Amino acid sequence: MEKNIFEKIRDEEAQSSIVYKDEYVTAFLDIDPSAPVHILLIPNKKIESLNDIKEEDSIYLSKLLLTAKNLAKKHNISESGYRLITNCNKDGGQEIPYLHFHLV
Ligand code: 5GP
User: Fold this and answer.
1) 57, 58, 64, 77: most buried by Cβ count inside 10 Å?
2) Which of 95, 98, 99 to mutate to test the pocket of ligand 1 (most atoms within 8 A of CB)?
3) CA 64 → CA 51, 79, 90, 91, distances in Å?
4) Is 102 a catalytic residue?
């Protein structure tokens, strides 16, 4: 099955500005930012949406939240504030079928 764009970014087969990567999480700049800081965070395991998370995925989700907190600090928005958003399916506004969180 062909990889979607976030799988290609995760595997560094498509161009993107990756700002953080470890065993569990990849974070990169949104191509069409809606705020001065707009970072997308994905688990390195392909999960289509929040509907598809399983108990065994909890390590990916906790690492993702910790990474969001750390990136907010690194980008100097911890104190001023930020939102962490995930869109789920069509009515939730999800365009890319790979679980991701917007840090904005
Ligand atoms: P969604 O609507 O699925 O929650 O968010 C998808 C996000 O991915 C959008 O904010 C969009 O700008 C971003 N996006 C779509 N294609 C690309 C791409 O090729 N590279 C990057 N860096 N972001 C993308």
Assistant:
1) 64
2) 95
3) 17, 20, 23, 24
4) no
- For ligand 1, atom 15, the nearest C-alpha belongs to 31
To which H or E segment does residue 102 belong? Answer: strand 101-103
Local confidence pLDDT in tens for the 104 residues of the chain: 899 999 999 999 999 999 999 999 999 999 999 999 999 999 999 999 999 999 999 999 999 999 999 999 999 999 999 999 999 999 999 999 999 999 99
Q: Which atom of ligand 1 is nearest to the CA of 32?
A: 12
Query: In terms of C-beta density within 10 A (0-12 exposed, 13-18 middle, 19 or more buried), how is residue 40 classed?
Result: buried
Question: How far, in Å, from the CA of 37 to the mean position of ligand 1?
Answer: 14
Expressed in angstroms and rounded, the spacing between residue 100 Cα and the centre of ligand 1 is: 9
